[in-house]
Amino acid sequence: MKVVATADWRQSIPFDTPVVVSELVPGEATRCVTCGVESELRERDQLWAFKHQHPNHHDGFVRFYCREHVPVVEKREPVPTVRAARAAARAATPSAVRTSPVRRVSNEDRPPRAMCPDCYVEVSAKGVCGMCGNTI
Ligand SMILES: [Zn+2]
Ligand SMILES: [Zn+2]
User: Fold this and answer.
1) Which ligand does the CA of 129 lie closest to?
2) How many CA atoms are closer than 13 Å to the CA of 51, on its beta-carbon side?
3) Are 37 and 17 in contact (CB under 8 A)?
4) What is the gyration radius of the CA atoms in the chain, in angstroms?
5) Are 29 and 42 in contact (CB under 8 A)?
6) What pTM does this model have?
7) Cα 54 to chain center, whole Å?
8) Neighbouring C-alpha atoms within 13 Å toward the C-beta of 103
9) HSE of 94 in the Cβ direction (CA atoms, 13 Å)?
10) Percent share of the chain, pLDDT over 90
11) Ion ligand 2 contact residues with beta carbon within 5 A
């Protein structure tokens, strides 16, 4: 039984990095997991092993792909979690204009806004007064 040897190469390859299968586990032609069991057999130098992260198993799991289906790797771009993506979106969204200590001198980049007749403050872009909620 050579089960241990089979497991070794899976652990030795990095996550999210395509590796030519023939360099890892030479052997008979096999199939791309995306092309499926109905597809033609491919030589192992035409297939890439790709180790995916698995939410429950830290060893991840490995699939073989043809040139067409091997996942695209974005270099130096860690896969963002949903939480990280939300945090980034929040950081990119400017919070209320009111919190900005610098008052803009130029109004060229936005149309002038109406004033609320009751509160004497500029209404929002949607025409709603931030103080009393009136729609102007
Ligand atoms: Zn394929
Ligand atoms: Zn108002």
Assistant:
1) 2
2) 16
3) no
4) 28
5) yes
6) 0.50
7) 15
8) 1
9) 6
10) 46
11) 116, 118-119, 129, 131-132, 134
User: Could you give the dihedral angle defined by the CA atoms of residues 7, 9, 13 and 19, in that order, rounded to the nearest 10 degrees?
Assistant: -120
Asked if 51 and 62 count as a contact pair (C-beta separation under 8 A), the reply is yes
CA angle (43 as vertex; 41, 47 as ends), nearest 5: 95
Q: What is the DSSP string of 25-75?
A: S--S-B--TTT-TTSPPB-GGGEEEEEEP-SS-TT-EEEEEETTTSPPP-T
pLDDT of residue 113: 81
Amino acid identity of 1? M
Tell me how long the chain is. Answer: 136
- Collapsing DSSP to helix, strand or coil, 21 comes out as helix
Ligand 1 ion: residues within 5 Å (CB): 32, 34-35, 66, 69
User: What's the DSSP call for residue 114?
Assistant: P
Contact criterion met (CB below 8 Å) for 132 and 125: no
DSSP secondary-structure letter at 110? S
Nearest ligand to the CA atom of 41:
1
98 vs 119 pLDDT, higher one: 119
